[in-house]
């Protein structure tokens, strides 16, 4: 491991209902598991915190939180380097150098219950698992697909140590067991002939186990739709999301029965209430923060906040990202107890844009339609 460090940059952006987009259209029964662990109050005086990542040309993608240590991990899609940040000290350092055993690109990350870091290898077709204590490689697997036909995008891990990986280019779910401390034989579940058919653009992207671990929820980037894989039966079915708009849907997170969807090109996070057996997902609300910069993935912490990975993928073609690359921590706003008027954010509300020191009109922001990765 390398010890290059970058200190936290804190911005004066109070995260309140009026400081970002926040709309709701339904009365929702809600249990905030992440907050219940600490007795915290969502949004109570927490200021948006920006963690700087050391280095240029990173274009970060996945972010994962380790509840046991209060640290987070973020990977570089461009180099494969993995960074570790500390919420208490604000320090961010290189955890693993890029290109470790062919892992030249990193996307989705997840820390499991025994402290292992699971890594999605993007276009390399690789999946890897590391020990978070010393960075040792526990195991690595390849899906064996030809370059250009695979993109291992994201991962979710069950309590028994089984990883479920999405592939955005080949319609399949990649399942890798690691319950005994070593990677087992991977299993491939094809979506061919099921209710889930890939269309134009990227297919399966973010992935999340349900609380009872009976199902895996997948978001399809191209169609902005949710799908459900039932672990026991292997059934694949569409989740009814009603009229919810999940354009740019990328990383997923779950708190109780509330699903968080990070929408990269739109620059916001939507929350949906899962129904019985995750067969439905009802739109609750949407929120954002001026510090977002083409956010791709999210991770809920145990102190009433959510970590958001700012990829800046929309600047990749121009080659002019705003440095440093960052991970943002914002307060989890409470869900409203009753119906609220859509578009409740006051028009023209001035907020301080992170890193600029200038006021920014939220209503003037224009989402950039860029292919998801």
Explained architecture:
It is built from 1 helix and 29 strands. The longest helix is centred in the N-terminal third of the chain and has 4 residues, at 33-36. The chain is mainly β and 373 residues long. A 5-stranded antiparallel beta sheet has the order 1-8-7-6-5, with no helix packed on it. Strands 2-4-27-26-25 form a 5-stranded antiparallel beta sheet, with no helix packed on it. It has a single domain, classed as 6 Propeller (Neuraminidase), CATH 2.120.10. 1% of the residues lie in helices and 41% in strands.
How much helix, percentage-wise, in residues?
under 10%
Write out the strand line-up for the largest beta sheet, numbering strands in chain order. Answer: 1-8-7-6-5
The CATH class turns out to be Mainly Beta
Q: How confident is the prediction overall: mean pLDDT?
A: 82
Instruction: Return the domain count.
Output: 1
H/E element order = EEEHEEEEEEEEEEEEEEEEEEEEEEEEEE
End-to-end distance: 27 Å
What structural class do the secondary elements suggest? mainly beta
Number of helices: 1
Strand content: 35-45%
The description of the largest β-sheet is: 5 strands, antiparallel
CATH superfamily placement: TolB, C-terminal domain
Shape: globular
Q: Per CATH, what is the topology?
A: Neuraminidase
Radius of gyration: 19 Å
Number of strands: 29
